[in-house]
Amino acid sequence: PEIHPVHPTTDHGRISPITLESGATIKLLIRADSTDAIRIPIQIWNREAYLFGIGAPIRAEGLVYGLLFAALLNNLLFFIRLKKKNSLFFMGMVAMVIFYQAAHDGIIQAYVWPGFLAWSGGAFLRVTLSIGMLFLLAHSREFLLLDNLLPALVKPVKILMAIWAIIIIGTLTGILPAHWSFAGLLAIAVIGALAGAAHKIRKNPRVQAKLLAFFLVPTLVLIVFHVAYQLGLLGPSIITHYAMSTAMVIFLFGLSITETARLIRVSKNESRHAVDALATQRKAADYLFAEVARRTRDYKRKEREAQVARKEAQSNLEELRA
């Protein structure tokens, strides 16, 4: 048997060559010892098979990051244009998803902080996901106008935000172990509650709730697939492998489209109100000018009548003297 000892290393990946005979069967044993969270995806490949099979995942990840940065730029432009606080919450949520995905894919560990395993461990992923959920709840409260339309849901939203804040603090202080996986279930609860709130106010024209619900349904289904895979209820497949990433992209893309539709409606309403206000001001100015002209005519008419009266009085006085 071939033995490849690995000494303490800070590399992101390690390649060990193994020579196999055609049709041979071997057992591969790996023992790892780490003081931090560790993830060891094992791949056995040759050069031709690797280069042939790596193209699709790279294109898929590039598409995911492209859509995320497009959503971030889109809402940045909306914030610059409309100065809405809601766009800031959405940008924070998208930024956390980008950090989460980059840490999960090993990009941060490879290029930002090599050798620091916590970047790709459960603690960092949980913290980024939790911060993203805080931004999501704040965004949902503003987006769905809960304070005005569903005030009964404001307190549960605050409670959920407090729970996520406790999870962040507990994870950073080490009280909550990094290997405990419950974020997926809480994410299902949060997005399910968001879908329920959108369903309740689906007929309100001020909120694009129907459009939001259209994207929430596939998001929930994909997250359920991901959680079922994490719990061992489903085996590995292309659906379970890309379920969480696809769910986040669909969810953020749906929120971005919904937010765009709402802001377009708000912009149109503001433009309509501005046009109405301008028309009202124009009518008021026309009325003011007409009133000034009328009073000027009345003043001139009365002045002419007074002059005629004075002339008549003067004429009568002269006749009396004569």
From TrEMBL:
<feature type="transmembrane region" description="Helical">
    <location>
        <begin position="116"/>
        <end position="138"/>
    </location>
</feature>
<feature type="transmembrane region" description="Helical">
    <location>
        <begin position="238"/>
        <end position="258"/>
    </location>
</feature>
<feature type="transmembrane region" description="Helical">
    <location>
        <begin position="87"/>
        <end position="104"/>
    </location>
</feature>
<dbReference type="InterPro" id="IPR011623">
    <property type="entry name" value="7TMR_DISM_rcpt_extracell_dom1"/>
</dbReference>
<keyword id="KW-0472">Membrane</keyword>
<feature type="transmembrane region" description="Helical">
    <location>
        <begin position="182"/>
        <end position="199"/>
    </location>
</feature>
<protein>
    <recommendedName>
        <fullName>7TM-DISM receptor extracellular domain-containing protein</fullName>
    </recommendedName>
</protein>
<keyword id="KW-1133">Transmembrane helix</keyword>
<keyword id="KW-0812">Transmembrane</keyword>
<feature type="transmembrane region" description="Helical">
    <location>
        <begin position="211"/>
        <end position="232"/>
    </location>
</feature>
<feature type="region of interest" description="Disordered">
    <location>
        <begin position="299"/>
        <end position="322"/>
    </location>
</feature>
<feature type="transmembrane region" description="Helical">
    <location>
        <begin position="62"/>
        <end position="80"/>
    </location>
</feature>
<feature type="transmembrane region" description="Helical">
    <location>
        <begin position="159"/>
        <end position="176"/>
    </location>
</feature>
<dbReference type="Pfam" id="PF07695">
    <property type="entry name" value="7TMR-DISM_7TM"/>
</dbReference>
<feature type="domain" description="7TM-DISM receptor extracellular">
    <location>
        <begin position="61"/>
        <end position="257"/>
    </location>
</feature>
